[in-house]
Write a structure and sequence with these properties.
Blueprint (H helix, E strand, L loop, with lengths): L2 E6 L2 E6 L6 H14 L5 H11 L4 H7 L5 E4 L6 E4 L4 E2 L2 E3 L6 E2 L10 H22 L3 E8 L5 E12 L4 E16 L4 E18 L3 E18 L3 H30 L1
Antiparallel strand pairs: 1-2, 3-4, 5-6, 6-7, 8-9, 9-10, 10-11, 11-12
Length: 258
């Protein structure tokens, strides 16, 4: 097996060449490599992998979570987060104005009922973000499913600029599917959560420490429902519990390496 080096500034990474392997093995190796590389360089690492293996482009873009990017709603002047769940072609839908930027004529929009739920969810998770993260940006996007349920994505991003002895970024992506049952009195929730973290800490006594990684977990639960606002409460509790667990695990990693 041939080893190839990719330059990243003055830093070199090496990995096994995937020539002669079938697509499934190539994809597994590529995803395993991406999990081991620093998340702050994920866009360049992903681009380098795609250059090496163009046939894996679609699979890698669909499988690798990338740090959330920020845009500003031109109508409300509020920041929001970009992801595949609010993208249509090359345009992104603002959760604040429900308008695409750049504007498109045939964009995909939620129904009136789902849109009202989306507005309420953005308000609720904006408060959650401010209380738990003391800053940052959050965005929620929801859409209907063909089987009668609905799904959504709750996104939170918090960055540190170095003003408090550290630089870094926390990106959490929570994707939830909701299916009502029992004549709408109960609902089943499926949650897939991914957190990407990178942290650079500089202290005179210990020098500079770089820490990065990602963590994905799933959860399911049934909960009673009285109206649409009940879904926000139930989803919020699942997201809160998931983030507390991940913060605890990540804090253990930081304490171990500090």
């Amino acid at each position: 097996q041939r080893r190839v080096a990719i330059t990243d500034g003055n830093e070199y990474k090496s990995y096994l060449s995937m020539e002669g392997r079938d697509q499934g093995v190539k994809l597994d190796c590529a995803l395993d490599l991406m999990r081991r590389l620093p998340p702050q360089n994920i866009e360049k690492n992903l681009s380098d992998l795609i250059d090496l293996n163009p046939d894996l482009c679609d699979e890698l873009l669909a499988s690798v979570d990338q740090p959330l990017k920020i845009a500003k709603c031109k109508k409300t002047n509020k920041d929001y987060l970009l992801c595949d769940y609010n993208r249509d072609g090359d345009s992104y839908r603002s959760p604040w104005s429900n308008e695409y930027d750049p504007p498109i004529e045939d964009g995909t929009f939620p129904t009136d009922k789902i849109r009202q739920f989306e507005i309420d969810a953005n308000f609720a998770f904006d408060l959650y973000r401010e209380q738990y993260f003391e800053g940052g940006i959050s965005s929620c996007y929801f859409w209907g499913l063909d089987n009668g349920g609905f799904a959504g994505a709750i996104l939170i991003k918090k960055t540190g600029d170095g003003s408090k002895m550290f630089k870094g970024s926390w990106d959490s992506i929570h994707v939830v599917e909701v299916q009502e049952k029992g004549a709408g009195r109960n609902a089943h929730y499926k949650l897939i959560s991914t957190v990407m973290l990178w942290l650079q800490n500089s202290r005179p006594e210990s020098g500079t420490m770089d820490l990065g990684g990602s963590l994905s977990r799933t959860a399911e639960k049934d909960a009673p429902v009285t109206d649409m606002s009940s879904h926000i409460v139930n989803i919020g509790r699942m997201v809160e519990k998931m983030e507390k667990r991940k913060k605890y695990r990540l804090r253990l990693c930081v304490d171990t390496t500090a």
